[in-house]
Amino acid sequence: MRLAFIAYWGIDQGLTQATVLPHLRVLSEDPRVEEIIFFTIERNGFVKSDSSIIKVHHFPVAEQSRIRGFSKFSALRKIYLKLKEFKPDFVLARSSLAGIPAYHYFKKTGTPYLIESFEPHAEYMIDAGEWKKSGFKYGLLKKYERKQMVTAAFLFPVSENYRNYLLAQGIERNRVRVLPCTVDGRQFARNQTEREGIRKKLKIHSSSTVGIYVGKFGGIYKTHEAFTHFMDVLERFDSYHLIVLTPQDSEEVLGYAKTAKFSLDNLSVLSVAINEVPSYLSASDIGFATYKQFASNKYLSPIKLGEYFASGLFVVCSPGVGDDASRLIPERIGVTTDRLDAFEELYRNFSSRSSVNYSVHYRSQKLIKECYNLFLTKV
């Protein structure tokens, strides 16, 4: 079987490394798969080919367009033309945007396709302040999302919440399967040596309670308000420190901390390679995920939460985020920021094994194989 896999991000972007490459490895190891052509959309003219996975041929596509704001659509057209040349037996797309050329190729040839990480991306762009509901791009993507609901062989949303929405829209139950953002539990298993090493490097006392935030600020994520939440939790401890791992400019992040009057003496803002993240999680005790309040948040499956759970962290998360937020207190693995009254009792009785067990049940990479087997047995 010859497959095409379309990713919406560049090869070196965190989401590709964390959520796409593991899926390609699963596919490449299946004896039913002969060959995979893998498309990425590279930003800023940067094009780098990566053929490190067996059976996978990487085809990077650079964004180029004379019309401002439409470079992504020009890249998607290039992918469609390459599909016509490659003639795959089945197409996988990660996100509704990546699914646009898959949809057109289906209409042209009848070749089946699926969309994983199928989410209301158009609504996310509104929530992030990137698009307007009256804008052309929003209307165009909404149109494609509706068409994909009807024509895709399978839809793999990342949350039960969005699966329930799709079923309520009349989508056949056997076409919809939840595939959250999964995590390699071995990679993120707590490492005592790394814990001690990172704490020594950052001059954090071994007895200090360490919080960690991984990711960006702004858009759908809180900025200075996030640091208020960090303070609300960490100032309960006699000795504490906060680690922030972010690709953003450190001065910008420090500005948010200063606005919230967070102690800079208790803060480390770093930008690290993705393979270094597990070490910093091992050095931590509490993982934070602070989102602005949007109705579409319930359809998310944040990769950072999966990594926190796999690392055995206690989680503090904004309410209404994906499936996980509502499970934190019942599973006794964390709290939402509107229920900090429950923090002290839950944290006092918290076992990191509970978070790891949660990760194994809800974020294990075995779910990838289970979902992919649905189409591999039918093509």
From TrEMBL:
GO molecular function: glycosyltransferase activity
Signal peptide: none
SUPFAM superfamilies, A to Z: UDP-Glycosyltransferase/glycogen phosphorylase (SSF53756)
Chain ranges of the Glycosyltransferase subfamily 4-like N-terminal domain: 55-181
Gene3D superfamilies, sorted: Glycogen Phosphorylase B (3.40.50.2000)
Protein name: Glycosyltransferase subfamily 4-like N-terminal domain-containing protein
Organism expressing this protein natively: Parvicella tangerina
